[in-house]
Each structure stands twice: as C-alpha cells, then as structure tokens.
Design goal:
Structural class: mainly alpha
Order of helices and strands: HHHHHHHHHHHHHHHHHHHHHHHHHH
Mean pLDDT: 82
Distance between the termini: 28 Å
Number of helices: 26
Keywords: Membrane, Transmembrane, Transmembrane helix
Radius of gyration: 24 Å
Low-confidence stretches: 5-10
Helix content: over 70%
Protein name: ABC-2 type transport system permease protein
Number of domains: 2
Shape: globular
Largest sheet: none
Number of strands: 0
C-alpha cells in the first residue's frame, strides 16, 4: 500500500493516536525531569519569597528599587511593582515569570525538535512512515503531546502559586495558564521551524532565536512601558498582570491565535516539502575543502562555529544588560532589608562588588552552557550517522570524537571573556579599577568552567546514553550560583558545584589554591574522557 493510498483511505492524520502513545512513552523521562525541575523550583521559591517580604512596608520599600528601566527589563511591567504592597503574588509573578517562562520555552523547543526534525534526521520517521500512518501524523502527535505537557506544567505551577497572599484561585490559575500559553506557542513556532530547516540543529536554533527575540522584546517593552511587549510571547504572559488589580485573561487569546496560525502553517508546509528536506534549501558547498579543514578537529570547529557566534552575541548582550543594573547597585540596596541584603551580600565593602561577583558567576554559567552544547553536538554526530563516516577514515579517537572537548573549551572560554567585557563596559562607568576587577573576576571563573565541561565530556565518553547527566550538572551549578543564597541550600550540596570553590572575587579575594586544584581536576576529567572514548564502542544508531 502506497503513502497516497494510505492517505486517501485513512487521511493524513492516520495513526496519530498510536504515535502519540509511542512519543509519550519515549519522552516520559524528558517530560518528567523538565516538569519536575520547573515546577519543583517554583514550589521551593514560593515560601522563600513569602518569608522575605512578609509585610506591606517591606514590599513597598523593595518596589522603589525595582522601578528603574534596567530592573524592569529584567523582570516585567511596572504594573506589578505598583501592586507589591498589596500582593506578595504580584512580587512573586514579577520576579519569576520571565525566567520560568523562558525555561518553559526551552523545554518545548527541544521537545518538538526531537520528535519531528531530529527523528527525520536519524531515519526514525522513515521507519514509522513505512507503516500505515498519515503524512501529518507524527507532527500532530508531537503537538498534541506538547499541548498536554504544557497543561500539566501550567496546572502544577498554578498549584504552587495558590498559597500566595494578595490573590485568589483565579490569579493562581492565570499564572499557570501563562506558562501553558508560552509552552504551546513555542511548540507551534518550533513546528514551523522544523519544516523550514533541513536538520534538527537548525530547527532548534530557530526556536531558541525566537525565544531570544521574545525575551529582548519583553524586556524592552517593560523598560519603556510601550507596545513592544506585544511582539513577544513572553510579553503576552506578563501582560496578563496576574495578582494585580489589572489582571486579565485576554492577552492569552493573542497567544492562542498565534499558536493556531503557526500550527496551520506547519501542517501546510509539511505537505509541500520533500521528506528529510527543509523548505529552505541548503547552500551549495565548495567542491574542495579549504586547507584548514583537513583534520577532524578543524572540521569540528567549523561545524560548531554557529554555536560560537550565538554564544558571543548572547553573552555580550547579557553582560551589557547586567552592567546597566550594576551601575545602580548601591541605590538598589537602599530599599532592601538587612535579611535581603545578607542574601545578596558576597562579602566586601559594597553591594556593587557583591552584584559584580554574582553577575560574573552567572555569565560564567551561561558561557559554560555553550560548551555543554558543543559536547552534546558530538553525541548527536555519533548517533545520526555522520560520525560514522569520519570514524571510517584514518582518524584517532582523540581526533574524533575527542575533538569536541577542545572545541567546547574554546567556545566557553571565548563567550565568558566576551561576557566579562560587556559587563565591564556596561557597569564600570569609566571606573578603571572596577573594570579591571570585573575582567580579573571573569578570568577567575575559567577553571570552574573547564572542570564542568571536562565532567560533561567524561560523561559523554563513559556513559554516552546518559545525556541527562550533562544537563543535571549544568542545572545544579546554575541553581547553586543564582539561587543558592535565596533557597538556603546546605553547604555540602553547594560544594558539588565547582563554582562554589572559587571564592567571591571581586567582593573578596579569590583562592589561588582552588584555581590550581580545579584546573587539575579538569585535566584529570579530560584524561578520563579520552580514556573512555578509547575503551568504549561508538554507537551509530
């Protein structure tokens, strides 16, 4: 029976139900850990913020520090700040929605890519389409699974927010529904991206680029209080004004309309492209490779240059954004209670240096993320079959896939340096001493970055199928660096992060011994990684 006969008899959605059950089963761990991570973090944060800002006076004092354009761009519209005194829920939503919304978007960008374009790339979809299923069934199943997961995530977040004062059940439901809307919109946009691009990496890049633009537009609209927020799916979620007197559901109708239009576009495009190809044809390459591409390592650097440029632009913008906040750190501190200042305090004589220390650490975590992504690219090349072609040529394991370690280290080091330059340029205000301390502090982070990436590489070498290990390691370091003080994590758990051993420079002196030890740990882990690659079989499946 041909595909045309199947579709004539059963329709292009034939087999959607079976594919939905199949995709749910194979994605169950992915969905569980992402949902547990986002919802669990929200459940932990609710009581912490409620305890820190118990009285209306404390919230009103904090509101005075959050009204600057720089702070609004990193949190949300002014309407939330105006409601701080009356509602702890408004403060919570204002501080959380941008970041939890962004993580929700990442979750669904990766989910839809792996169930659509990535499956075509690995030929899994080819096997599925040899069965009596319609042409649109796999896309429909991926979108239905995404919608169901978004509803579950939204329900858990609504439950987490239900105990906040200053609102009712409708406010909590609106908070959860805002995240559901973000998930569905980005799932639909990624479905379109999967039809336009010819591989999973490009589709993911399109989806994350849409997220970056969404965060940028939301921040710009919040800072200026203008219409730019309406260009952003995250902005639509913020414009619901949950837990404020102006809260309303109607901005989510915009999200629903855009999601519906994107789904229609994706279903239209999937019928107008060849299987395994994207709507955008790939550029014709050179007939002969350049001299610099005559080794596996050079090829790896060439294949990962897109991640390098993405990292450079992202961390530069992040550094400049943090720099705009750093300039007003001391004024920001005036509205904080002693307990709140203690959480932000990283030592030293000024809160400005404490802020600089925190921003430097966060920049380093983001830079490390791009290194982790490079290592993940090595695993992908191994599984989709392209690595098999390289492995069949006369190359050593240290040349491929071992070349992804130096590529990851270079990527993370470069992006961290760019972030430091952006932070120094945006936050020093001509103070050469402060700029110098920021740049030195940026360099101090490198041994911890290298240790994290070396661990991820060792995990790739010894446990290639346990991809969740690299994300667990990176997520834990982010949690320790950014939220460790807020959540009052135990010392032993924070010590699992290499960044916890660096000291708090420039707020305090850094430990030279720690830098040496972390560099040695990175070297040992890298050696273990190369040993693992030599001992294990490559998995071309």
């Amino acid at each position: 029976m041909t595909a045309t006969e199947i579709e004539d008899g059963l329709g292009t959605l034939a087999g959607t139900g079976k594919l939905l059950r199949f995709q749910a089963r194979r994605s169950r761990l992915y969905l569980f850990w992402w949902t547990a991570g986002i919802a669990g973090f929200t459940f932990m944060t609710v009581p912490v913020l409620a305890d820190q800002y118990q009285s209306a006076a404390e919230r009103a004092a904090f509101a005075s520090t959050m009204s600057s354009p720089a702070m609004l761009s990193m949190s949300g519209p002014m309407q939330y700040v105006d409601a701080y005194a009356d509602s702890i829920g408004a403060l919570f939503t204002h501080r959380m929605l941008l970041w939890t919304g962004a993580m929700t978007a990442v979750m669904f960008v990766l989910l839809v890519t792996r169930l659509t374009r990535a499956d075509e790339e690995t030929s899994r979809s080819e096997v599925i389409r040899s069965l009596p299923v319609g042409r649109r069934a796999d896309l429909a199943a991926a979108l239905l699974l995404s919608a169901a997961a978004a509803v579950v995530l939204g329900g858990l977040l609504a439950l987490a927010a239900s105990g906040l004062d200053g609102g009712d059940a409708a406010s909590a439901l609106l908070f959860g529904a805002a995240h559901t809307a973000i998930g569905i919109v980005f799932a639909a946009l990624t479905a379109v991206a999967a039809q336009l691009s010819e591989n999973g990496s490009t589709a993911t890049g399109y989806g994350l680029a849409a997220l970056g633009a969404s965060v940028l537009f939301a921040g710009a609209g919040s800072a200026e209080g203008n219409w730019v927020s309406w260009l952003s799916p995250i902005g639509w979620a913020q414009l619901t004004f949950a837990y404020t007197p102006e809260q309303g559901w109607w901005p989510l109708l915009v999200a629903a309309a855009v999601a519906a239009a994107a789904v229609w576009t994706a279903f239209t495009l999937v019928s107008h492209r060849d299987f395994g190809q994207g709507m955008f044809a790939a550029r014709r390459g050179r007939a002969e490779a350049k001299a610099g591409l005559r080794s596996a390592t050079a090829l790896t650097f060439r294949l990962t240059r897109g991640l390098v440029w993405t990292g450079v632009v992202t961390t530069l913008l992040l550094g400049l954004a943090y720099g705009s906040v750093l300039g007003g750190a001391d004024e920001f501190a005036d509205g904080l209670s002693e307990a709140q200042q203690a959480i932000l305090d990283r030592g030293g004589n000024s809160l400005q240096l404490s802020f600089a220390t925190t921003f430097i650490s966060v920049n380093a975590i983001v830079a490390a993320l791009f290194g982790v992504l490079v290592v993940g690219r090595g695993r992908k090349e191994e599984t989709v079959g392209r690595g098999e072609l390289l492995a069949a040529s006369p190359v050593a394991r240290s040349g491929w896939p071992g070349s992804y370690l130096p590529a990851a280290l270079v990527t993370a080091t470069l992006t961290n340096a760019v972030a430091g330059v952006g932070l120094a340029a945006g936050g020093s205000a001509g103070d050469g001493d402060l700029a110098g301390k920021i740049l030195i502090g940026t360099l101090v982070q490198l041994p911890a970055i290298w240790a994290l990436i070396a661990f991820v590489f060792a995990a790739f070498a010894w446990l290639p199928r346990a991809g969740w290990l690299r994300w667990l390691a990176w997520t834990w370091t982010l949690l320790v660096v950014y939220f460790g003080g807020l959540l009052d994590l135990p010392e032993w758990s924070m010590a699992l992060s290499p960044f916890d051993h660096l000291g708090n420079y420039p707020a305090e002196d850094f430990s030279q011994a720690a830098l040496v030890v972390l560099t040695a740990v990175a070297a040992v882990l890298a050696g273990l990684g190369y040993l693992g690659l030599r001992r294990r079989s490559l998995h071309f499946n």
